[in-house]
Structures are given as structure tokens and as C-alpha cells.
């Protein structure tokens, strides 16, 4: 045990000496939430319809009541470039047709593929329909009919979404970035301590010490895991601070990184970090050079990340709930949406994660007994 | 808008009379809303009831017209505060949680009108109107005792709204006594001051240190009482459609007359309306007089079921329908056409308006009577009574109320109840120029001793300014800033008036009379211009 601790200490000191490359991983943990929040702030501004929506209304004189109605609902006429993206033309015979209860036509011209104005188009359509429905009702009243009859069905909707779950999509992405940080934060250290150590020719030296290969492997795994968890803690703290600054309420929900969530995320992150560390060490040792290790790792890491990514969308197939990484990701998302945590799935995926970690560690131990690996032949 | 509740005009107008009611709906959407509201059932509340066993202060619930999850709860209070161990009643409340709760120790308490409307049943309207406030603060709705789910004092008035009823034949005393017999409560305990204690108890129960108030119509009286008795619990106050403490709501008659005159004036000053209906006032008086002589009986199709029915158009139904239509800007726009048609013997528009406004059950008539009989009716002076008799609407209303109150056990509030509120809490007062219930001068009256207050008159709003204009933005600003300094009310001046209906189809200028024979207008004079100056 003592030996392992000494080993861990050695690795960490090593890591601390090469600040640049190791910190690169941790920068990810600190930078991602900030960049995401900045991005969301911009997106929210772009995607929501402005409170005062300016559009170009042509022939406004043909339908003054309609124009005032729209204006009371924040839709006004303007003649600048932005406003011209949506034009509403009132037909010349609008008033004449209206007077005879014939359809009075208005023409709405806009580019529906322009995401920036999609919401505004919907909003304008909604208001036009509301106005039309109102006039329809008044016409019925004028004929002695209760307009209530035009709505034979009253649709009552009870949405099971909670305030937290409405932000689920965003939180899914947030959890994904956290999972990602577990993998990224320790990666450089993993390469450095394996392929790097070998390249510096210090691996053989290390092995010549009176310690078992297992102790050496465990020491390295623990060191890398520590780094991965450090990255996780950092990203949790930064997220906790950064996310509340985004004006989520403008799109109708709130994103709250609670302490409970942080605790759970950390616990769930431990087996994942162990697996990430062993996986990275294993792959790095298999590679012949530092650079090669970097390329391989990038490819290998794609697998767990793809799992995590897939799980953050609701379309994910059922099976993902039981797999490592994606299983934990789904459980975390359920937790944050206020649903019951699928314990069975969480346990199975976590145990699978650990089994993979142990298997890789065993493989690592075995491979380090081979000279081929130790000397990179 | 209005009223969901229109209190109705029929007989009940006597009983329900006041009609200060507001509805929680936004005029512009009234179709959807009126329909939804008028047909609304009360499924809502029951959900909450069954769930309340848990020790938590609130439980998840759904409210009518909204699909989100809200928090509902109730507290038990003694029906009679002087007998704390006596009968207990439940006061129900609902919280519309803030989207992003930056001020967890504050909430905006929205108080419904009537008297007798349920705040919780009107949640959808409050939610829409107070969207901006809700971004950062909880909205608290409390069913005042005697309304909604809080031991409602309601009267079964089902057949009083029948199409063929003659309101003059109704015996208000008997109806009131029958209603009373069906109520299991000490009705003297349902006045505003006692109900206020419940509000304060709910606030303490939920742990809010400061409340922002929004009181609409009669709710503005509750808000003023809150300022009088618990000023330390308040951050800001908004009074909308203000009933000043000095004013008896029963004196609403002159407000109705004023509302009508404003309507005649608006039509006269509008070229299209003036051209189409040049003799509007005469026509109104003609119909009114005709009905005063004798009601008109007609075979009609029921507006809702299409069954053949007898429609007895009485003076009460006619004036009542017009009165209720004045609450909603869009329905108000139909009045000139409806009056014009009635003068020509076509009563369908009046029937349509009557049908829409009569059959609503939004007001708990028992609670209404407890409030009005204890706080308002005794403030009517001889002079006021004389004035009221001048007009049919106010005269018959006062008449009905006096009979109701004769039978209704009450505990009269003393004179100090009528003192103006003396307060330095930042207070925003909103009045609608077109309001047929609480005219702008009532707002000015309420402002008398409010040292930090601003009173804005929205030129194109009726009753419930915040629902019909940018008034709700002003509220959000007041709540956010905690002071009135930067609020100038300029946005209320924006021209958002609704054009009058010129025939049964359109609000836009009629085309120059053509050879079209299918126009069959109800018009007496062809419009000769397509230009709209409005």
C-alpha cells in the first residue's frame, strides 16, 4: 500500500512539473461551462421573439383595427431592414370582403427557414388567428349565437414536466460536458505517464525498483483518476457559478446546478474516472510513441463519448440505459428532471464500468510484464 | 376584460348586482377565454384536495386553463376570529412559482374582484397578465373566504337566467332567503376585514416577508385594507379599476351612465360610426322606453342549444346586456350595431350578448351579499338613493340589493371603514377611461392620502387596465424597482382602441355603396369613404 502511495505521489509530482500539458486538460473543465453559457446567452437572444416585434405592414390603412390590435400585442410597423424580413400585406378589397363576411385576405411573406425569425412568424400567425377568431365570435354574437358552441371540446392538458425538467435538454448537454471532462482532464497525464515515461526511458528504471507491476499500474491509475476527478470537481464548481447567469427564464425555465446534483455527479463520476484512467493508460501503453498514443486515444475516446452524447437525447434506445457511461448519464438526467433514479440501470452500468476498469487494469499489468511493451519494441 | 362574470343582468342583477367583477381574461383573447371561462368547470381544485395529506405546505396541482404544475395548499382558520376554537374553515391558495426565483422571500398577491370571484379559478388570466412579474417572483393566489374552494357561499341561480324569465316578477326576498337556507355558514363572518386576516395568515404560513399586491376591482378594496392593517408586510401595491374606501360600490349607477355616455361620445366622434349610426342615442332611448312599457316576447333559437325557445326581452335584460358588454373592449364595439338593430326590431345581437354574459357562475353570490350588505349598502344616503332612481339600471340594482340585504344577516362596518387610506407604500393606480364600473375619478379619490403614488388613466381601456394595455408592464416595473420614480405611463397613450362594428360582419370602413344586393346591410346610410381616420 505504501508503495502505491509513493507511486501516486511520484506521478503527481511529475504531473505538477509539466504544468503546461497537464493543465491543458483542466482548462477544458474550466472553460467549457463558460463558453457554453456565453453561447446560450447569444442563442437565447436570437431565438426568442423580441418583445416589440417590428414588421413591415403594407396597406395598413385598409385594416386600421387589425393594425391596432397587432400593435396592442407588441407587433408594430417599421420600415428598416430587420422589419422587412416579415411583411404583412393587407389586400385592397380587405374591407369590402369583410363587410360581406367573405374571407378578407392578408398576405404574410417571410423566410421560414430563417431561425432568427421563426418564432416571430409563429407569433404573428397566432395573433392573426386570434384576431380572426375574435371577429368570428363577434359575428356569431351579432347573429344571436353563443360563440362558445364553436369549441365543442375543451382540451385540458396536464403537463408532467417540472420546472427543472423543462431545462432537461440543456442539462443533458451540461452533463455531457461533465462526463467529457472526466475523460479529457486525465488524458494528458495518462499519456505522459505511460508512453511519455517510456519515451523518456524512465519506465524501465521504474520497473527495476523493488515493486510489483501491479503496484506500479495501480499507482498510475490512481494518479490519473485523481486528475480526472479534479477536472470533474472543477467543471461542477464553474458550472454552478456560471449557469445561473444565463437568462433562462426568457425561454421559460431555469437551469439549476444543485448541491445534491453535484454530489451525485461526483459519486457517479468515480467509477467512470477509474475506467477512463485505465482505458487511457492501456491504450497509451499499447502505442509505440507519445504522438501515436495521442491519436489512438482520440479515436478510442470517441466510443464512451458517443454513448454519452446519444444518451443526452431522448431518442436514445433503451439499451443505452444499461451500458457504461450512457447508463450513468441517463440516471443523472432523470435525477435532474426530478424523476425517480433508475437504480437498477445505474448499478448495472456502474458495475459494468468497474468491471471494464478492472479487466483493463489486469490487462495492463499483464502487458507490462512483456518487454515488448516496456521498451516499445 | 372583463368579466367573466358578468354578473348578470337579470334578476340577478339585483342580487348580484354590482358587477364590479373583472375577468381575468385579456380582452384581445376573449374569445378563447370567454369560452373557456364561461364553460369552465372546477375540476381544478379537487386534485389538490386529495393530495393534501402530506405534511408539506403545498402539493402539486393543476389549474384550469393552464397545463403547468403549480403548488396548492390550504390553511385552517376559525370562521369567527373571536372564537378561535369554533368552526374552522379552509382557506385555499395556489402559488404560480417564479420561473427564476431571485426573490424567494417575496411574492405578488393577486386579488380577484366580484366581490365573489375566485382568484384560483382566474389563474390563467393572472398568469398571462403577470408573466413578467412571474419571471422572478412567485404569484400567490388566495381564494378569499366564501369564494372558490374556500367554503364558498354560493346560491343556485340556475333558472334565473332563463331566456323567458321576467325579472320584475322575481321575489328577491324569497330568493335571498332560499339562498341563505342553503348555506351552512355564519354569513356575518365573510366581510373584507375578516378575510384580510386570512390573507395575512397565508402570507405568514408560506413565510413571505414582503408582498406586492395587485387588486382588481373589488380586489382593490382588499388591497387598500391590507395597506391599512398590515403595511409592514407590503413592498408595493397596484390598484386596478379602483374602488376607493370612501366609495360605496352600490353607487355604481352613475358609473354605468357615464360609461354609456362615453360610448355615445366615441361613436359620435368616429366618422364611420357616426355615419352608420347617426341616431344612436335616440335609438337606445327608443328601445329602452319601448321595453319600459312592455317586454317583447319572441320565438328564437336558443343561442347555445339551438332549441326553439321563447325569448322575453325585458328592460332588465336589455340594459344588463349592454352594461356587461361595456366591460370588454371588443364586445363594446358591437354595442352600436346591437342597439341599432334592436331599434329596427332585430333582437338577435342583444340575444347573443345576453347569452354570453348571463350564464356565468363566476361570482359567489352569498359572499357577494355578505360584503355588500355589511360594507356598502348602509353608506347609501337619501340623496344617492334619489339619484339612483333617476336611471333604470342603477335604480333596479339598488332596489334588488336593498331587498337582498334586508334578508341577509350582516355586521355593519363602522364609519372609519370609509376613511381614505393614508400610506407611503409605493402605489400604482390604474383607471380605464371607458370603465363602466370604476371611473377614473374613483381612482383619484383613492389616491387622496397616498403620498407615494401615481394614478394613470388608460384612454382606451375599460375595467381591468392591466389586462388591456401595457399596464401589466408598469406593474412589472414597479415590482422590480420597488418605486414609482421611473414609471411615466407613457405607453398607455398608444392608440389601441377597437373600431366599432358597422354591420354584423366588419369593423372596417364599409365600401362605397355598390350595386351589390347581397349586402343587405343593416345600414341606414351608405358609407361613402373607404378611408379610415381613426
UniProtKB/TrEMBL annotation, chain A:
Top-rank taxon of the source lineage equals Bacteria
| Primary site of residence | membrane
Q: Can you list the GO cellular component terms from the UniProt entry?
A: membrane
| Positions in coiled-coil regions | 114-141
User: What topology in the membrane does the UniProt record assign?
Assistant: Multi-pass membrane protein
Which Pfam families did the record assign?
Answer: ABC2_membrane_3
What is a GO molecular function of this protein?
ABC-type transporter activity
Q: Where in the cell is it found?
A: Membrane
Q: Which residues form the ABC-2 type transporter transmembrane domain?
A: 30-359
Where does the sequence pass through the membrane?
21-44, 169-191, 221-243, 263-283, 295-316, 343-364
Which UniProt keyword terms apply here? Coiled coil, Membrane, Transmembrane, Transmembrane helix
Q: What is this protein called?
A: ABC transporter permease
Q: Which organism is it from?
A: Shewanella algicola
TrEMBL record, chain B:
Where would I find the AB hydrolase-1 domain in this sequence? Answer: 108-243
> Quick one: a GO cellular component term?
membrane
**Sorted alphabetically, which SUPFAM superfamilies does this protein's record hold?**
alpha/beta-Hydrolases
| InterPro entries noted in UniProt | AB_hydrolase_1 (IPR000073), AB_hydrolase_fold (IPR029058), AB_hydrolase_sf (IPR050266), Pept_S33_TAP-like_C (IPR013595), Peptidase_S33 (IPR002410)
Gene Ontology molecular function: peptidase activity
Keywords from UniProt, A to Z, are: Hydrolase, Signal
Pfam families registered for this protein in UniProt: Abhydrolase_1, Abhydrolase_4
* The keyword Thylakoid is annotated on this UniProt entry: no
Record-stated family: Belongs to the peptidase S33 family.
Listed name of the protein: Alpha/beta hydrolase
Amino acid at each position: 500500500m505504501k508503495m502505491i502511495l509513493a507511486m501516486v505521489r511520484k506521478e503527481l509530482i511529475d504531473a505538477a512539473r509539466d504544468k503546461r500539458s497537464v493543465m491543458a486538460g483542466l482548462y477544458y473543465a474550466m472553460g467549457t461551462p463558460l463558453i457554453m453559457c456565453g453561447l446560450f446567452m447569444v442563442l437565447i437572444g436570437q431565438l426568442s421573439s423580441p418583445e416589440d416585434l417590428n414588421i413591415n405592414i403594407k396597406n395598413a390603412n385598409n385594416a386600421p383595427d387589425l393594425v391596432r390590435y397587432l400593435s396592442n400585442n407588441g407587433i408594430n410597423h417599421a420600415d428598416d431592414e430587420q422589419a422587412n424580413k416579415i411583411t404583412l400585406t393587407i389586400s385592397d378589397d380587405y374591407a369590402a370582403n369583410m363587410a360581406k363576411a367573405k374571407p378578407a385576405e392578408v398576405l404574410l411573406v417571410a423566410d421560414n427557414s430563417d431561425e432568427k425569425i421563426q418564432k416571430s412568424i409563429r407569433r404573428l400567425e397566432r395573433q392573426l388567428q386570434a384576431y380572426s377568431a375574435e371577429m368570428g365570435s363577434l359575428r356569431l354574437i351579432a347573429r344571436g349565437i353563443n360563440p362558445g358552441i364553436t369549441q365543442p371540446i375543451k382540451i385540458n392538458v396536464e403537463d408532467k414536466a417540472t420546472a427543472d425538467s423543462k431545462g432537461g435538454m440543456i442539462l443533458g448537454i451540461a452533463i455531457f460536458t461533465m462526463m467529457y471532462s472526466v475523460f479529457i482532464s486525465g488524458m494528458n497525464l495518462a499519456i505522459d505517464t505511460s508512453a511519455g515515461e517510456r519515451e523518456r526511458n524512465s519506465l524501465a528504471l521504474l520497473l527495476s525498483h523493488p515493486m510489483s507491476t501491479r503496484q506500479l499500474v495501480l499507482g498510475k491509475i490512481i494518479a490519473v483518476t485523481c486528475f480526472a476527478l479534479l477536472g470533474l470537481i472543477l467543471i461542477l464548481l464553474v458550472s454552478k457559478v456560471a449557469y445561473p447567469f444565463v437568462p433562462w427564464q426568457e425561454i421559460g425555465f431555469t437551469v439549476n446546478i444543485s448541491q445534491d446534483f453535484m454530489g451525485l455527479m461526483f459519486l457517479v463520476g468515480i467509477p467512470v474516472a477509474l475506467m477512463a484512467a485505465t482505458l487511457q493508460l492501456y491504450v497509451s501503453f499499447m502505442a509505440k510513441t507519445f504522438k501515436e498514443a495521442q491519436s489512438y486515444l482520440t479515436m478510442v475516446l470517441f466510443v464512451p463519448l458517443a454513448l454519452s452524447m446519444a444518451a443526452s437525447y431522448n431518442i436514445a434506445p433503451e439499451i443505452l440505459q444499461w451500458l457504461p457511461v450512457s447508463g450513468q448519464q441517463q440516471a443523472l438526467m432523470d435525477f435532474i428532471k426530478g424523476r425517480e433514479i433508475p437504480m437498477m440501470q445505474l448499478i448495472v452500468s456502474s458495475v459494468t464500468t468497474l468491471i471494464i476498469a478492472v479487466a483493463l487494469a489486469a490487462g495492463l499489468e499483464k502487458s507490462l510484464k512483456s518487454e515488448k511493451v516496456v521498451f516499445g519494441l | 376584460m372583463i368579466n367573466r362574470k358578468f354578473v348578470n343582468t337579470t334578476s340577478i342583477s339585483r342580487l348580484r348586482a354590482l358587477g364590479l367583477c373583472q375577468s381575468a381574461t385579456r380582452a384581445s383573447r376573449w374569445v378563447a377565454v370567454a369560452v373557456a371561462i364561461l364553460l369552465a368547470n372546477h375540476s381544478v381544485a379537487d386534485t389538490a384536495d386529495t393530495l393534501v395529506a402530506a405534511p408539506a405546505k403545498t402539493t402539486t396541482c393543476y389549474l384550469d386553463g393552464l397545463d403547468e404544475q403549480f403548488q396548492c395548499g390550504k390553511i385552517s382558520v376559525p370562521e369567527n376570529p373571536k372564537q378561535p376554537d369554533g368552526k374552522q374553515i379552509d382557506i385555499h391558495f395556489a402559488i404560480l412559482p417564479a420561473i427564476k426565483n431571485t426573490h424567494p422571500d417575496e411574492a405578488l398577491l393577486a386579488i380577484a374582484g366580484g366581490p365573489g370571484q375566485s382568484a384560483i379559478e382566474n389563474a390563467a388570466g393572472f398568469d398571462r397578465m403577470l408573466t413578467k412579474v412571474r419571471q422572478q417572483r412567485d404569484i400567490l393566489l388566495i381564494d378569499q373566504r366564501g369564494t372558490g374552494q374556500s367554503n364558498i357561499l354560493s346560491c343556485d341561480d340556475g333558472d334565473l337566467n332563463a331566456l323567458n324569465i321576467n325579472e320584475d316578477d322575481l321575489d328577491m326576498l324569497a330568493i335571498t332567503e332560499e339562498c341563505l337556507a342553503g348555506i351552512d355558514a355564519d354569513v356575518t363572518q365573510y366581510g373584507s376585514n375578516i378575510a384580510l386576516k386570512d390573507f395575512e395568515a397565508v402570507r405568514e404560513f408560506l413565510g413571505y416577508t414582503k408582498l406586492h399586491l395587485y387588486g382588481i376591482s373589488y380586489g382593490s378594496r382588499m388591497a387598500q385594507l391590507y395597506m391599512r392593517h398590515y403595511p409592514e408586510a407590503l413592498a408595493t401595491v397596484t390598484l386596478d379599476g379602483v374602488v376607493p374606501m370612501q366609495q360605496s360600490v352600490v353607487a355604481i349607477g352613475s358609473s354605468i351612465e357615464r360609461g354609456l355616455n362615453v360610448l355615445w361620445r366615441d361613436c359620435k366622434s368616429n366618422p364611420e360610426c357616426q355615419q352608420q349610426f347617426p341616431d344612436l342615442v335616440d335609438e337606445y332611448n327608443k328601445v329602452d322606453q319601448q321595453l319600459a312599457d312592455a317586454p317583447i316576447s319572441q320565438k328564437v333559437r336558443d343561442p347555445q342549444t339551438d332549441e326553439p325557445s321563447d325569448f322575453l326581452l325585458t328592460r332588465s335584460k336589455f340594459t344588463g346586456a349592454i352594461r356587461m358588454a361595456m366591460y370588454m373592449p371588443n364586445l363594446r364595439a358591437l354595442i352600436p350595431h346591437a342597439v341599432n338593430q334592436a331599434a329596427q326590431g332585430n333582437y338577435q345581437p342583444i340575444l347573443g350578448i345576453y347569452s354570453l354574459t348571463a350564464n356565468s357562475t363566476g361570482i359567489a353570490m352569498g359572499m357577494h351579499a355578505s360584503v355588500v350588505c355589511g360594507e356598502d349598502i348602509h353608506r347609501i344616503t337619501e340623496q344617492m338613493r334619489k339619484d339612483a332612481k333617476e336611471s333604470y339600471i342603477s335604480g333596479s340594482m339598488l332596489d334588488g340589493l336593498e331587498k337582498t340585504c334586508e334578508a341577509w344577516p350582516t355586521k355593519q362596518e363602522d364609519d372609519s371603514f370609509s376613511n381614505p387610506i393614508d400610506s407611503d407604500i409605493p402605489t400604482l393606480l390604474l383607471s380605464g377611461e371607458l370603465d363602466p364600473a370604476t371611473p377614473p375619478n374613483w381612482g383619484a379619490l383613492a389616491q387622496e392620502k397616498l403620498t407615494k403614488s401615481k394614478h394613470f388613466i388608460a384612454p382606451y381601456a375599460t375595467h381591468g387596465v392591466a389586462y388591456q394595455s401595457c399596464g401589466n408592464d408598469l406593474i412589472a416595473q414597479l415590482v422590480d424597482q420597488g418605486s414609482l420614480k421611473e414609471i411615466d405611463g407613457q405607453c398607455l397613450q398608444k392608440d389601441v382602441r377597437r373600431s366599432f362594428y358597422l354591420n354584423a360582419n366588419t369593423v372596417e370602413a364599409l365600401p362605397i355603396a355598390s350595386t351589390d344586393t347581397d349586402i343587405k346591410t343593416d345600414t341606414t346610410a351608405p358609407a361613402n369613404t373607404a378611408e379610415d381616420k381613426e
